[in-house]
Amino acid sequence: MAHEFADLHDRAGRMKAKGVVRDVLTFKTSREYMYWRIKRRVAEQSLVKPLQKHVGFKAATAQVTELFGDAYNDDQAFLVKLEKDHEAIGKALGSAKTTALAASVALLLDGLTQDQKDAILAGL
Fold it and tell me: Could you report the per-residue pLDDT of 16-26, keeping only the tens digit for each?
C-alpha cells in the first residue's frame, strides 16, 4: 500500500502540477534539455555571484530577472539575450553594484561627524 501511495505522488505530471518541477522530460529530449538548462544556470550564476556580495542573493537574482524580462523563463532565450545584449547587461549590473556600494558607504559615513567625513574623504 505504501508503495502505491508513493508511486501516485512521485510521478512527473503530479510534480509539475504542484510546481515542484518546471517541465516533464522525455528520455528522448532529456539530454538536450539538460544541456541548455545547465548552460543557462552557469551563465546566470556568473551574473548573480559578483552582485550578490553587495546586495545579497535574492536581490541579485531579482535584478537579473528584471534585466531579462520574459527571456528569464526560457533557457535558450536567456542565453541568446545574454549574448546579444552582453554589454548592456554588464553595464546595468555594474551600475547596480555601484549603487549598492554607494549606499553601503553612505550608511557607514552616516554615524560620523562632518570633520570625520572630511578627513576620510581627504585621505582618498
Answer: 887 777 888 88
pTM of the predicted model as reported, rounded to 2 decimal places: 0.72
Q: Are 14 and 8 in contact (CB under 8 A)?
A: yes
- Residue 34: partners with Cβ closer than 8 Å, 6 or more residues away: none
Q: Residue 78 contacts by C-beta under 8 Å, 6 or more apart in sequence?
A: 40, 43, 44, 68, 71, 72
Give residue 88's Cα distance to chain centre: 16
Give CA–CA dist 103/109, Å, rounded. 10
Cell of 104: 553601503
Q: How far apart are CA 82 and CA 43, in angstroms?
A: 8
